[in-house]
């Protein structure tokens, strides 16, 4: 994506939420102003190509040192082989192609193509002026549009969707994640005694997991009820000891 596409995408953001006709009118006015302002800048520019592209070409010109082109005898003077005794590339000027693929991808001539152009003493075309040579003609407003006999198109009924409104776009597959946002990771929850998942103390059947020791009777605990004053309580044990001590005490003798 070049700078022109990035600038265009940035400017149309404010028109994206508008109706279709208002959106197109806003884009048209932006393009008209953009082309008019660029034409004013061109009056004081003497070059034949864009200034930034000119810097790239000047850099590629310095890299042509050591490359020797060889014409292969075609009638159009467009087929060349360029080599530096180590690497060899094929250049086709009429098709604007080079086997290094830099010219195909960026549209800017690489050092191999520049060496071929210098060999045949060919001049590049002035395409910078042709970029803004066309104009966009103005259009009348809605009050002068022709009226048709068809039914008026009404907008669809706006219904609010269920759930929370979406505010963020979907990330691309090759887009890096934001390092400042903590990713939500769901950990596996297991029961501590058996180490298995999807159950707790009530539903655990006592299956032994690897490295876990489980009692023979499982994880179920016996529900024993303690009754006040019953057997096994502290009070009942104290009463039993008192009775045994009184029964074992020596009885007084009669004289």
TrEMBL record:
Domain SWIM-type: 89-121
Keyword Zinc-finger: yes
Superkingdom to which the source organism belongs: Eukaryota
UniProtKB keywords: Metal-binding, Zinc, Zinc-finger
Chain intervals for the UniProt region annotation (Disordered): 202-255
One GO molecular-function entry: zinc ion binding
Bias-annotated ranges (Basic residues): 222-237
Pfam family, one: SWIM
Record flagged with keyword Oxidoreductase: no
Comp. bias (Polar residues): 242-255
InterPro entries assigned: Znf_PMZ, Znf_SWIM
Protein name: SWIM-type domain-containing protein
Organism of this sequence: Pisum sativum (Garden pea)
